[in-house]
Design a protein that fits this description.
about 90 residues; alpha/beta; Oxidized Rhodanese, domain 1; four-stranded parallel β-sheet; 5 helices; 4 strands; globular
């Protein structure tokens, strides 16, 4: 089992979905928080207050990868979970 898989299974993280609100409404990981990629910087204080590590997900892993790079530069412990389907599978 990978570290990421273990963190998700043990619910020792906050899952953040960086897709658009419309995509999120169409289906998402139960209990995940929707913070669209373009709002990551403006909601940094909110993200810093969440239980870490953050597990970021989107449709394919592209946007969550961008968010992960940015948040890691801000000193936030986070992982790119890839597709929300993958994260949902682990949960």
């Amino acid at each position: 089992m990978t570290t990421l898989e273990k963190i998700i299974r043990e619910k020792k993280c906050t899952i953040v979905d960086v897709r658009s609100p419309a995509e999120f409404a169409g289906g998402h990981v139960a209990g995940s928080l929707n913070v669209p990629l373009q709002q990551i910087a403006s909601r940094l204080d909110e993200l810093k207050s969440l239980e870490t590590p953050l597990v970021l997900c989107c449709a394919s892993g592209n946007r969550s990868g961008q968010a992960q790079q940015y948040l890691a530069q801000q000193g936030i412990e986070c992982y790119n979970g890839g597709s929300w389907f993958d994260v949902n599978y682990y949960q």
